TrEMBL record:
NCBIfam families: YbhB/YbcL family Raf kinase inhibitor-like protein. It comes from Gossypium raimondii (Peruvian cotton). This is Phosphatidylethanolamine-binding protein. PANTHER family: PEBP (PHOSPHATIDYLETHANOLAMINE-BINDING PROTEIN) FAMILY PROTEIN (PTHR30289:SF1), UNCHARACTERIZED PROTEIN YBCL-RELATED (PTHR30289). InterPro entries: PEBP, PEBP-like_sf, YbhB_YbcL/LppC-like.
Length: 170
């Protein structure tokens, strides 16, 4: 019975990352050439009934900060993901309009490098955990031109009907 429930659970996965697995170099600032800073592919299953849109937040949850021992570092923020989509392809970041269709509705927010889209980590040391959080929302967000993680998390308060996560290491 428990495994049946797990099958019906709202889930987030990446075909190239196993849960608690390693983030391949091509998704980071340490990749080479065209295989550098690609946004990782993501897939989700069992989107909750009543979902009007989804939002994604990806953070390095072990990032050091001189004034605070650990301060999450935002790598990617994506808002207004239509519930009709089943995932985001590899290298998608920055190509919403090029890919078109339902993907053109997405809004990529600013990461902690202060630019929109995916920005993979360049770490002083390895062993950091990266947390991918996908929120199912009961409304479409009305966000301004500059979307940040803080603004997104504030706007989704009271509208989250499901959350799925996957964590990876780098």
């Amino acid at each position: 019975m428990a495994s049946e429930q797990a099958q019906d659970q709202f889930r987030l996965v990446s075909p190239s990352i196993s849960h608690e697995g390693k983030l391949p170099r091509k998704y980071t600032d340490e990749g080479q050439g065209a295989k550098k800073n690609l946004s990782p592919p993501l897939e989700w299953y069992n989107v909750p009934d009543g979902t009007q849109s989804m939002a994604l937040v990806v953070e390095d949850i072990d990032a050091p900060d001189p004034s605070d021992p650990v301060k999450p570092w935002t790598c990617w923020v994506v808002a207004n993901i239509p519930p009709t989509l089943k995932g985001l392809p590899e290298g998608f970041s920055g190509k919403e309009e090029e890919v078109g269709g339902d993907y053109a509705c997405l809004k990529e927010g600013h990461n902690d490098y202060k630019v929109p889209g995916w920005r993979g980590p360049k770490l002083p040391s390895h062993g950091h955990r990266f947390q991918f959080r996908l929120f199912a929302l009961d409304e479409q967000l009305k966000l301004g031109n500059k979307v940040t993680k803080e603004k997104l998390l504030e706007d989704i308060e009271g509208h989250v009907i499901g959350e799925a996560q996957v964590t990876t290491m780098f």
